[in-house]
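Continued from yesterday's entry.
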Amino acid sequence: MQKDTNKNYPASFDDLIRELESGDYKHLQIFLFREKPNLGFVEDERYLVVNSNGFGLYKLHDLDYKDGKIQLEFIDPETNKLATVTLDIHDTQPDLFIVNWKDVLDLAKDYQPDTDNELLELDREQEME
């Protein structure tokens, strides 16, 4: 792994990914996945972006790394406006989490009650009274 000669950060995005995979920079694991961790992202896929100011649904347009900073570009799907977030890799408490929207939908679906079964149970309870 190559580090910039004057700085204490990985020289390239590939070097940063290797360090993340080896366990360094765990605080940068801002992409949250329901089933298994994944360091990659799918361009133009929708993500729930959460920070201390709130949350919203965005498309991840671009992800870049330079000089110890990760730059994420999001597009608001309703307005098509671009929003950029920059993360310093040495900030051990990033104010950002990104959750794949498909995972959110799957989670909601898994916890959605089966209304047909609930109605049948209610009917049976009423019949017993």
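--- second protein ---
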Amino acid sequence: MKANFNKRIAEHYNPHILVVVRGCKSKNYDFFANIKTLLELCPTLRIIYFYGNVTKDNEQDYLDTVETLAPFEIYDIFPYDLYERGFKTKILELLSSEPTSSYQLQKILEQRRKDEENAEQFIRKFERIIDTTPVDLSKQKVENEIYDSENIEKIDMIPERLSADENITIGTALLSGRQTGSILTAFEIAVILKEAKESAAVFLDDETYQNYIFYHGIEDAPKGCKINGLTIYPMSLFDEKHLTVKYAVCDFGTAPAERSGDNYDRFVKSEIKICICSFNEWDICTLADWLNSPLPYIKEINYIFFPVSEKSFIKFSKQMAKEHCKTFRTESSPDYTQPSELNKSVYSHIIKQYTDFEPAKKHFPFKGRQTK
């Protein structure tokens, strides 16, 4: 930007709209110092200002920017980033829309304030440390950045260990409706709990429960049933039945993305949260959006990737580890009643982060037998 930018743009271009991304500041030109002169030369100019992503660290700077621009009746101030997915669509929508009014900007700021207050109330209610470290799973970041495990910053939130007599809810969910493996994971976890002589039950949504028992020749069992040695209940009985077992393993279908509804309340209160994810290239954007969403429990979740090759898992999980996400890989088992050894070790590791759970020991039929 040259020192004569204002005069040059007014005389040669006289644009209807000027889009500013993160401010314009160089040795010869400061956008904020020149706003008044620019608008005097171009009185009908509409300025759209993209501040960039707003975090706790730059929240005050964002508000200061609003305070600087508002006196000039510049209210198109948006917390979007140039490199954010969907930016091109967003800017086209804004260019074809009416300018933001002072009232609309005030409502945007009020909503941000409410969201912050809700997050603070959530922290106080559940006594949690919410980790908002951004997660970047772009191809460039994943494939080109050198990985050094010694440089990973360790997250300071240690899972709360639960006492042996507590009732524990393990919630499983999919990150996308296109993926599979959530119900399978719930069943396999119930199997290893049963093998360890722990009291456990699986809770399925009512429709899935009906389909499952019907397949096994059961016309109706509204109060629950036992199949393959596992206790199964419909989710509608959760409030009534979950305290009758030590471990309530609940499949919530798709992970709740909104802070409302029974599924959200139950998932957020689950002591152990598990999300089944995919590293397919067509699913990465969904995963990245979820990991950077404002939901307060994102970093509490144990992310299981299924199915995925070891090579792909290592490539992406190293990036997620640096950004404080817990990742695991599982594989296809012969049957959900016979989890593979890899899957058993993954589930056991996850549960042992929170409880004193001890998995069943392997049985070696000839161990200790003397030979002559």
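The radius of gyration is 27 Å. The longest strand covers residues 247-254. Will compare against the first tomorrow.
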